Amino acid sequence: MVTIKDLAKEAGVSLGTVSNVLNGKNGVSLDKIEKVQRAIDKLGYQRNIQAVNLKRGISNKIAIILPNIIEMKYSYLYENLNLNFQEDNFILELYLSYNKKEKEREIIKRIKEENYLFVISDSCVDNAKEYGNLLEKCLFIYRNIDGGKNIIRFDYTSVIDHYIQHWVREDIKQGIIIKDEFSDFSQEDYAYLMTKAIQENIKLEFIEQHKNSHLLAFELAQSENHSMLFTTSFETAKLIHNAYYFSNKPFPKIYTFYRNNFNNDTRFRLYGLDYGYISKKILAYIRKENTAIEPFHFSFLDFLPQNRDQNKNNIIKILAVNTPSIDALKKLIPHFTKLTNIQVHIDTCTFADMPNELGKNTRTNQYDMVRIDMESLPYFAQSYLLPLDFLTIETLEAHFSASIIQKFCQFQQKIYAVPFDPSIQMLFYRKDIFEDAKIKRLFYEKYNKELTLPTNFEQFNLLLHFFQSGVVDYPEIKKGSALIIDDEGTLASEFFVRYYANFPSIFKNGNILFNRKAVEESLSQLKTLYENAIRLEKSWWKDESELFQQGEIPLLLVYMNHFSPISNHNSLYPVGFTSVPNQRPLLGGGSLAILKQTPNQTACEWFISWFLQHIIQEQYSQLGGVSARNDLMDNQSITQSLPWLALAKQTKFYGIRENVLGDQAIHLRQIETIIGKAVKDYLLKDRSEVATAEFIQQQIDLL
């Protein structure tokens, strides 16, 4: 095993120098950093984090005891915890008890001999006292255990209610309830299920597994006919289905749990259970995060049946700006058409042309719905949009944060739209560059400062200067960032994020009044970006994002809905993300609304109801759309490829877009057009900050 002594000898430097390089400390010359890195590459050194922590007197090991790794809830839990613990520099060590008490006791004995920070266990022993002195650091999961101090499990009350309601709708009168060896239903859960069934005149027979699951499945399949079977285990459900395949009995309806992901498995009636909830509770406990966490179960995939023949000639036409989310929606529309027989056509226009197209539609009545940018929603709501009276505020609150509802749905307490692709600005960066010891040293030698992520625009501009002429060992880097120089909308966004970093508002005493000093400072900061960025023409946010993906720029400040198609898996380089400098991002993205003149109101309402379905939202997000649903921003399969969703949720989609003054809408798009034109002239025609600031306020006063 290669040690730091070996590295020191190979590099010809002291042990202290090697230690400082490994720990990313300043004070080591570039020459010595290069020598140590060459030694690491040559000898294949891998740092032993466990040994480092042992030396410090702390442990970074966490033990997890599971009955098996085949059951979905266990494999899903282990994968999620392992991914998150790696990011936290914890080592997760797996022990399998196979649901045997003696095997678990052997594991407990072995764990006591090690130094573990925590022990996570789905235990099959009778009492938690068997864990002895481990009890204080134990987290018991899924099943109840007598004497357990820290227990994380589901409250199945609402789930059972959903099942009973579903069985009543399906006219199910009798069935078999199977308690297999891995069920985490408590006796109280089963009692509640039986009580609710009796109240609805549903006769349920309870069977507890005392033998091999395979044998039990075949005995069920070869006994009398059963119309419905329910088991909490997806693996047991598969055994039962296979047993019926080999029998001469008709297949029953087999009900079971599945994770919160769509699965068109016609063998079963699947209930989407939020298995990610257990891992989130574990992580919050270990990280000492005092946050309220609630499960979001997808429940059954029940799309409302519609009269397809009645809808045969119906067509919905949607007007939209072309975004990655629109591309994602187009891929799902065939499903809506299959359900309803309603055709959906989407026409796209430019961001600048949208107001003209909406005005034209009042004469042509060409469109039924619109994907409208959120900054324009209040201004256009009463003129062009139909209030969505079929939706309640409670329906929206069940899935979206209060800030999303306020900014993307409501105006003057009426619901005019639903969130389509809500977004906030974020700063994306190349992680490999910001973690490179040589780059850190080069930055330190040049500025006598540590290389860190910028918390204000002065620091951001310093990084632009640093990356201006490229970076050693990274020949693909051309400039520090990128700037679209001929689009008024994007230039306005670049201006406003800097303005709000300098001043809190564009309003004063009930009027639109820009702070002159903040305008001049924002323009100056933008000039630095202009001078140190790749300049793009006839481009859009996606073009900047592509430059980042190709590695040509290490920093990009952009709306996350335009960055999301570049997932963590697709990027050529490791992606980091953080809040924008000064932590006052602009809100962006848009909403989906129904236009007033539509003759197809009912069809449009069906479309919105379909779009809001959790399964559709999940697929939409997987395809590159952006959803602000609370449950999806915690969905493991989505956040693994789009980890910045966690930051958006953490900030509750906090952002600024001042489009309402008091209770009156302002024409923010018009103001942004003025800003964009003024900024473009300032940059391209070399106008002064003072003259440009004066021009902006003069134009605003004319509105």
Q: Measure the end-to-end span.
A: 73 Å
How much of the sequence lies in strands comes to: 15-25%
Mean pLDDT: 92
Radius of gyration equals 30 Å
Work out the helix count: 29
For this structure, what is the CATH class of the largest domain? Alpha Beta
Q: Strands across the major sheet, in which order?
A: 7-6-8-9-10-11
CATH architecture of the largest domain: 3-Layer(aba) Sandwich
The total strand number stands at: 28
Major sheet description: 6 strands, mixed
InterPro entries: Bact_solute-bd_prot1, Cro/C1-type_HTH, HTH_LacI, Lambda_DNA-bd_dom_sf, SBP
Domain HTH lacI-type: 2-56
Family: Belongs to the bacterial solute-binding protein 1 family.
Pfam family, one: LacI
Describe the structure.
With 703 residues, this protein is α/β, with parallel strands linked by helices. It contains 29 helices and 28 strands. Strands 7-6-8-9-10-11 form a six-stranded mixed beta sheet, sandwiched between helices. It has a five-stranded parallel beta sheet with strand order 2-1-3-4-5, with helices on both faces. The chain has a five-stranded mixed beta sheet with strand order 13-12-14-26-17. The protein is flat. The mean pLDDT is 92. It is found in: Periplasm. Residues 3-46 form the HTH cro/C1-type domain. Residues 2-56 form the HTH lacI-type domain.
